[in-house]
Amino acid sequence: MFSTLVNLFSVNWYWFLLVAVIAYLIGSINPAVIVTRVVTKGKSDIRSMGSGNAGFTNVLRSVGKGPAIVTIVCDALKCILAVFIAYFLFVWFASVPSGDEWFRRCYFTCIKYYAGVFCILGHAFPLYFRFKGGKGIVTAAALMLSSDWRVFLLILATFLIIFIVGRIISLASIICAILYAPYTFLFTFVFDHLLTQPCLWYVLVATACSLIIGMFAVFMHRENIKRLKNGEEKKIHAKK
Description:
By secondary structure, the chain is an all-alpha fold. 74% of the residues lie in helices and 0% in strands. It has one domain (2-27, 79-229). It is globular, with a radius of gyration of 19 Å.
């Protein structure tokens, strides 16, 4: 099985490279920056307002609910678009495994994770905006929905419970980022590998990708972690 994966990568290396570039460029489109500039008629940059983060929460606090809704929807859609393009390219143009339908399903899901990782990198370090972007939480959530809806629902439930109790988005985001890999392993190993059909390589790839994304999200929240430790992190309060 490992040799099959290595062979597929060697045959399709240029498609992997193309997907990485496309996903990164799509991820580099930052709705928070664009929406804020439109609303303020070019007078303000969201990265110089509030917490300085080019993401949904800062737009909600600093600009308002309407722009925040546009931001969160566009942040999610760009990842879904990147994942869809990657899936389309590999299904229709790249060399794909034949015969074993379960193997094909796992393979294409891994392609989704792959595209999502680069889209999140683009969101955090956007080419178009001097490599200063957001933390990628909404984009990562869209990847979860695109790749494994079971993990998405469990993460969403966890996020809502923590947020309702604490009213701090960063705290809920950090905990969910930490739990992303364990949740992914739970579903892929127990419900897919053990109960459905053996596919250990898929478990390892999916868990590794979710671990990388989760660790990256925690790293991007390092300032929030400091404020949480000092009791200085603000609870959510949207600008009307």
